[in-house]
Amino acid sequence: MVPRASVEKTLTLLKQRGLLNSQLKIRSENDFIQIPLSREPFAWELEMIRNDVPDVKLCESEFPERQEKTTKPADLLSDKLPSQLLASLPHAVDFVGDIAVVEMPPELEPHKLAIGDAIMKAHKRVRTVLSKSSPVNGVYRLRTFEIIGGDARTQTVHKEHGCVYHVDLAKAYFSSRLSYEHLRVASLVKENETVVDMFSGVGPFAVLTAKKHASVRVFAVDLNPNAYELLRKNVLVNRVMAKVTPILGDIRQVVNQRLAGVADRVIMNLPEKAIDYVDVACEVLKPEGGVVHYYEFVDTPEPLENARNHFAEALKRTNRRLLRITETRIVRGIAPFKFQVAVDAEIR
Ligand SMILES: C[S@@+](CC[C@H](N)C(=O)[O-])C[C@H]1O[C@@H](n2cnc3c(N)ncnc32)[C@H](O)[C@@H]1O
Q1: Predicted model pTM
Q2: Is the pLDDT of residue 74 over 80?
Q3: What are the backbone angles phi and psi of residue 165, rounded to the nearest 5°?
Q4: Which of 128, 179, 187, 260 is least surrounded by Cβ atoms within 10 Å, i.e. has the fewest?
Q5: What distance in angstroms lies between residue 224's CA and the mean position of ligand 1's atoms?
């Protein structure tokens, strides 16, 4: 149960975790809304949601069924897969435009084409199903995929918060699981700010920031030529050319050459390496300081405290001072007991 004002935020977070039960109808009770869940959330998932929606409450309730019943891939596979394997079906399917992305457990490998087919039948908008075939790695943060259903392609057009993004999942990083984080950061930007998106990918922070604010200047930097080309296209199709400047290059060099001392705010969405670029973030900020959105992958027992401490320690090696940390939040779970954490900090 959540207050009416927090419904949209809560639905985005539940969908990201595959926790929303779309077969049942949402119920409304005075100023509160009850949202049906597909399963009980893990304690850490609940904590993550409470980070953003502190008033969320778990309760038991009866929900009416939707008139048009959606078909689940598991229903379509019940006569094709041994019952013990049905339980291993991927819970979380990521949707990027008309592409569905899944992580296939090894025991389901022999059945992957049937699973791809069932996902396409259950989700009519899906034209391609990809199975992750490597972890995200390398400087460009890419993974490889195997096509297990539909058209053989990795490009699509994805809509997020009213913006349109051309993406190619094999050539430039993009994750629909960061949707809420893109919105959160873009909403914190103030009119007349200059923002440097240090690791912009195809532009979901930069483009949304420009769309949401009448008078901002955004520099969006990426080292990957494919990400840069898609970013340029996304800046054009979303008509934010006057506000966003795409730059191809290594952020350290770009800042040295043309961006030192320009920013009121920097976004450091390279969680596995952002710690090595805290000095660059300090250089890009205006002399009077500004806001840093720092990201890190943490797999230690106190993820929030650890990310805060790592950032504060890295900052001590620069000529800047930490004024205050305004927010620390778990963005998403990456693996059991491994999280992406965001630290928002004011720096002088
Ligand atoms: C995790 S992705 C983030 C993408 C984007 N912020 C988003 O939310 O979709 C990190 C991006 O940083 C880029 N990158 C890695 N090292 C870089 C560097 N030294 N300078 C600029 N970009 C870099 C990669 O090519 C990749 O596109």
Answers
A1: 0.84
A2: no
A3: -125, 125
A4: 187
A5: 8
